[in-house]
Design a protein that fits this description.
TIM Barrel; Immunoglobulin-like; 4-stranded antiparallel sheet; 12 helices; globular
């Protein structure tokens, strides 16, 4: 009798393990990690959610896959993983051969720990480069991943009346430029949208997803990126997006809050609890904004990477709506670039500095908000 019980228990545990090891295709609880520093705190935050999350890991530009082997392995122990081959902002910097090489490198090294490969991010964004080069990169990355029998995802950028060229409107671009093989074969198609980028416009997501399903009938669909830098609105946004009630066939949620590391790590932060409640389905559709307190501080972050060549990212935060100045100076104090010069809402920001036309050496960047100022040093190498 004991042997029968042992066998039954073994079978039960095997089935449970099998279920836990395969990404859920009916509901995806997505978050985004844009840096893998503080990996222990990230893993703890992810592991304590009531639902197993799917974590998008943004693989930084010009960084070898080997740098991600350890953090990917640790995150994979507690979360499903979607690997973003390259953020849309940097796609233009890669030639077709470089994008091909990068895809092969990452897929070959990390493929066993990555459940979904995001072969293209915000691909119709007007900053991604010429359409023909973007399409060529998508096609080659799709073929590489599919040849390995791995899952593919594509993220489009929703830009209703927020485009400069009408050909980049999301549905128009996708219909014209994504080939039939991908329209029928992509495992996931996501929509990236930031209300801050489009004057606060809130789309009719039911109609958007219905139309997306027609275009990609075999793909799981959902929100692929969302978020806000406005601290007083973060909880409201999380509840609104993760609480969507969409009835479109193949809709699986997603959402992939872009600021998860900043907002929910460590898990003692208030927004971690907001996110966990949203996962469980117990969140309110809209939190009263009057109940949300901002904990944003005036801060100038370290640029990353540093040293850099030719581009680095500078992060900063401000505690209230203010006039903001962020400028770059050379080593003798001459102003060489103005990165920010205007009124900003309270929140967290990041801007890129491209020093392609400057000589190697030491530079300084200065953040001024009201009577507060911070200065930091960076090194350009060539």
């Amino acid at each position: 009798m004991k042997s029968v019980i042992t066998i039954l228990l073994t079978v039960f545990l095997a089935v449970q393990f099998s279920k836990a090891a395969v990404i859920d295709t009916t509901k995806v609880y997505g978050v985004t990690i844009d840096a893998t520093s503080q990996i222990s705190s990230i893993v703890t935050s992810l592991s304590r959610h009531c639902k197993k999350p799917t974590t998008r890991i943004v693989f930084d530009e010009w960084v070898p896959a080997t740098d991600y082997a350890a953090p990917v392995s640790k995150i994979h122990n507690v979360s499903f993983i979607m690997g973003e081959l390259l953020d849309s902002y940097y796609m233009k910097q890669y030639s077709l051969q470089q994008y091909t090489d990068r895809t092969n490198e990452y897929v070959n090294l990390l493929g066993s720990k990555v459940d979904i490969w995001e072969i293209g991010n915000e691909v119709n964004g007007e900053w991604c480069g010429t359409t023909s080069t973007v399409v060529a990169k998508l096609n080659v990355a799709y073929d590489i991943v599919k040849a390995k029998n791995m899952k593919t995802a594509l993220t489009l950028y929703y830009n209703n009346n927020c485009w400069e060229n009408a050909s980049n409107e999301m549905f128009r671009w996708a219909k014209a430029n994504i080939n039939t093989k991908m329209k029928n074969g992509l495992d996931y198609v996501w929509v990236s949208y930031y209300e801050d980028d489009c004057n606060g416009y809130q789309p009719n997501w039911q109609k958007v997803m219905d139309s997306l399903h027609v275009l990609f009938p075999n793909s799981k669909i959902g929100i692929g990126e969302c978020g806000t830098t406005k601290s007083t609105k973060k909880a409201s946004y999380i509840n609104r997006y993760y609480g969507m009630k969409i009835t479109t066939p193949n809709y699986v949620g997603g959402y992939f809050w872009w600021y998860y590391k900043q907002d929910c790590v460590p898990n003692t932060k208030t927004l971690w609890t907001t996110m966990d409640r949203a996962f469980s389905g117990t969140s309110i559709a809209e939190d009263p904004l009057s109940d949300i307190k901002s904990d944003t501080k005036f801060k100038l972050g370290d640029n990353y990477p540093n040293p850099f060549n030719p581009t680095t990212r500078i992060a900063f935060s401000i505690p209230r709506e203010s006039y903001v100045s962020l400028k770059v100076y050379d080593n003798i104090g001459r102003e060489i670039a103005v990165l920010v010069n205007g009124v900003k809402d309270e929140g967290e920001y990041a801007v890129d500095f491209n020093a392609d036309r400057y000589a190697a050496g030491v530079y300084y960047y200065r953040l001024s908000v009201g009577n507060q100022t911070q200065v930091k040093r960076m090194i350009l190498v060539k």
